[in-house]
Amino acid sequence: MSESDDIDAAMNRAERTVPGGQAPDPFDARRLRDALGRFATGVTVVTACECDDHHGPVGMTVNSFASVSLDPPLILWSAARSSIRHAHFTQTPAFAVHVLRHDQEYLAHRFTRRGNGFSGLDYTQNEAGVPLLADVLARFECVTEARHDGGDHTIIIGRVTRFESTTDGAPLIFSGGQFGSFRPDQSS
């Protein structure tokens, strides 16, 4: 074994061993996903119109939603490039983000890859034709401000043009691959 082979072997051993366990394999997507899943997020459904000639309603369950700015009012969310709905959301001029209540897991499932989407679901449309779901914790109607490449996702920034919210109910939470709810401590 040459000196460079000895150095490579020692480096590989050092990279694999860290106090308290093993260093993460940068190419182990499942372990990375599990680690990211330790961060609890809220659950939203983002809606828009199809970008093709049909202009029908389209929706996607999303947990990558965040506030960006209050002045101007900007939010962001990320659309997976692997989604069959990706093109609709990256080409739309307007969309709405619906924050789901703890008892609306059924809505989250409707807008996943195998869900029923808008089939048989009541909704209204705003003046831009964006489908709006009723009775959610909060809804943000937006125009698309910017899109950015984000690896296997497209980061979409929206300017909030209208919003509404209620304090009735707790949010639907997603963590560790499971839905749940947040129950604030009532003891204080």
TrEMBL record:
Gene3D superfamilies: Electron Transport, Fmn-binding Protein, Chain A (2.30.110.10). Keywords: Oxidoreductase. The keyword Oxidoreductase applies. It comes from the Bacteria. InterPro entries: Flavin_Rdtase-like_dom, NADH-dep_flavin_reductase, Split_barrel_FMN-bd. Residues 1-27 are annotated as: Disordered. Residues 36-181 form the Flavin reductase like domain. SUPFAM superfamilies: FMN-binding split barrel. One of its GO terms (molecular function) is riboflavin reductase (NADPH) activity. It holds the Pfam family Flavin_Reduct. Belongs to the non-flavoprotein flavin reductase family. This is Flavin reductase like domain-containing protein. It comes from Thioclava pacifica DSM 10166.
